[in-house]
Design brief:
Layout (H helix, E strand, L loop, with lengths): L14 E4 L5 E4 L10 E4 L9 E7 L2 E6 L5 E4 L10 E4 L9 E7 L2 E6 L4 E5 L10 E4 L10 E4 L2 H4 L13 H5 L2 E3 L5 E3 H9 L2
Antiparallel strand pairs: 1-12, 2-3, 4-5, 6-7, 8-9, 9-10, 10-11, 13-14
InterPro entries: Ricin_B-like_lectins, Ricin_B_lectin
Pfam family, one: RicinB_lectin_2
Protein name: RICIN domain-containing protein
């Protein structure tokens, strides 16, 4: 695969990473934790759907989420077809380094340096919620992406935490007990803990 000679990445810019149907990669449920999955979703102009490409060597980038500050990473540093892509705090590992490979017609492939495989979607799905993974390059449509700069007007708004989802009725009524780890347990785990006492 040739490295990109045409795609120009600005270090101060944010981008959306869009599939053929216009849906974009985002951090699932605006989760800021290590291990949060990267999935496809309709673009809503949100910062957890926006990415910065930080140079990490000649022709290599770390792809950092604007909202969480964490980077795209391979789960468990896996290199097999089907390894999920998630976010993780920045490390020096090659599992977090990606190359932009020109694919023509304004599209690119994102090749992981460690695995020598490209960013892909599980089951070639393109609907909301499709999980990002790596797969060998098969020139599939689900392996092609458009990098679109985020308009400045969207970047001028201060980053704010999204509203917390309203707890469901089941969550509000669940009894909680403390486990030995000091964390609260609810539902079945709470009942198990009380039986073991």
């Amino acid at each position: 695969m040739k490295r990109s000679a045409q795609t120009i990445i600005r270090p101060d810019a944010c981008y959306t990473i869009a599939a053929a149907n216009g849906r974009v990669l985002e951090v699932a449920d605006f989760n800021t934790e290590n291990g949060a999955s990267i999935r496809l979703w309709s673009y809503e102009g949100q910062p957890w759907q926006q990415w910065q490409f930080e140079e990490s060597g000649e022709g290599e980038y770390r792809i950092k989420n604007r909202f969480t500050g964490k980077v795209m990473d391979l789960a468990m540093s896996g290199v097999a077809n089907g390894t999920w892509v998630h976010q993780w705090s920045r490390t020096s590992g090659a599992a977090q380094r990606w190359q932009i490979v020109e694919a023509g017609h304004g599209k690119v492939k994102l090749r992981n340096v460690l695995a020598d495989k490209v960013l892909d979607l599980v089951g070639m799905r393109v609907e909301n919620g499709a999980q990002a993974q790596i797969w060998q390059d098969v020139s599939g449509e689900n392996q092609l992406w458009r990098l679109e700069p985020v308009p400045d007007r969207l970047l001028e708004k201060p980053l704010e935490a999204p509203p917390a989802p309203a707890p469901s009725k089941a969550k509000r009524t669940a009894k909680t007990t403390r486990t030995q780890t000091g964390k609260k347990a609810s539902g079945k785990s709470a009942r198990r803990a009380s039986k073991n006492k």
